[in-house]
Amino acid sequence: MTILVVADHDRGVLDPTSLQALTAARALDPQVDVLVVGDTGRDVAGELAAHGAATVHVATGVPDYAPQAAARAAVELVGRLSPSAVLATGTPRGNEVLAHVAAILDVPFAAECVEVSLAAPDHQVVRNRWGGSILETAVVHSDLLVASYVAHAVKAEPADGAGTVAEFAPVLSDADTAVRVVDRVGEASAGVGLAEARVIVSGGRGVGGPEGFAPIDELAELLDAAVGCSRVVTSNGWRPHNEQVGQTGTKVAPDLYIACGISGATQHIAGMRTSKTIVAINTDKDAPIMGYAHYAIVGDVSTILPALVAATRAAKE
Ligand SMILES: Cc1cc2nc3c(=O)[nH]c(=O)nc-3n(C[C@H](O)[C@H](O)[C@H](O)COP(=O)(O)OP(=O)(O)OC[C@H]3O[C@@H](n4cnc5c(N)ncnc54)[C@H](O)[C@@H]3O)c2cc1C
User: Fold this and answer.
1) Which of 229, 230, 260, 301 to mutate to test the pocket of ligand 1 (most atoms within 8 A of CB)?
2) Which pLDDT score is estimated for 152?
């Protein structure tokens, strides 16, 4: 048997959480096949092959992110390899492709899992519900398990050995490529990306407005960090949507997460609770974020942040 992992990449840049899904799959079955979709998938095949995939299958001739076409490629491999499971990390693309896979094969889809045990036809999963505030233990009645892992539920571990890379051109209809990315509009992000940042300085409503992000930007630059924010901040137009952390934003797990004027609503916590060290700055000592913080600073961001910037600058001199 084998497990098929659908890797997520953006124009040849591997989403690092794909290595987490690959690690999780290896723990379930030493034989793991990986699918990368699109010609630019060739750029990430080597990294996946070096990470414990027996074979990395590159589906060529598929447009740059077309979810149904990616699912067709996965279904074609399911037919050929008869895996016990199709797994991915629950990135927006990962979940979308797996939802199509499950729909095409008419099997259930268990999204946002933190644990998976293969036991066909009654697979066991533990998965996040309500934005990660509760864990649900469930049985998935299906010979083939289609499931996504919550990002950062598993730590990516390297593997010995090098797998092979094989290319194939999946059979697609026009309908399979009807939904596809045709253009990307938006600001090119400068600096460190949120998903891979080791340090994140994040602001919430408590910073008071867009100008309140000036010391956050400054601190982030000094710490070589990415800037994040809460949904209130993006909804108010203070910061762009791609900086939102949380259930409906980016899920992050940096070494250090500094939450400035963020209350710690469940939906925000769902996106950052696995951060290794959480520092919260808040005027309210009883704010929910304080319950998750390893270090809490009770105080006004307008005085604490400039002091932190000055101290960091001095320490670097
Ligand atoms: C379906 C759904 C999905 C959602 N998804 C997300 C998501 O992905 N990400 C997300 O963040 N939210 C999400 N939300 C919104 C979430 O419920 C909260 O409304 C939001 O996270 C609150 O943002 P906040 O902490 O910035 O603001 P608030 O909750 O208003 O908190 C502001 C905090 O700042 C503190 N404060 C005020 N002044 C100061 C000061 N001068 N100095 C220091 N501290 C100060 C206050 O004590 C308070 O704790 C979602 C909601 C729903 C319904």
Assistant:
1) 230
2) 86
C-alpha to C-alpha distance for 286 and 24, rounded to whole angstroms: 37
Q: What is the pLDDT of residues 184-207, one digit of tens each?
A: 876 655 667 888 899 999 999 999
Distance 6 CA to ligand 1 centre (A): 34
Q: How many whole angstroms from 14 Cα to the centroid of ligand 1?
A: 31
Query: Is ligand 1 within 6 A of the CB of residue 68?
Result: no
Give, using CA atoms, the residue closest to atom 27 of ligand 1: 205
**Phi and psi angles of residue 169, each rounded to the nearest 5 degrees, phi first:** -110, 105
**Tell me: the pLDDT tens digits for 139-165?**
999 999 999 999 888 999 989 878 999
Residue 2 near ligand 1, beta carbon < 6 Å: no
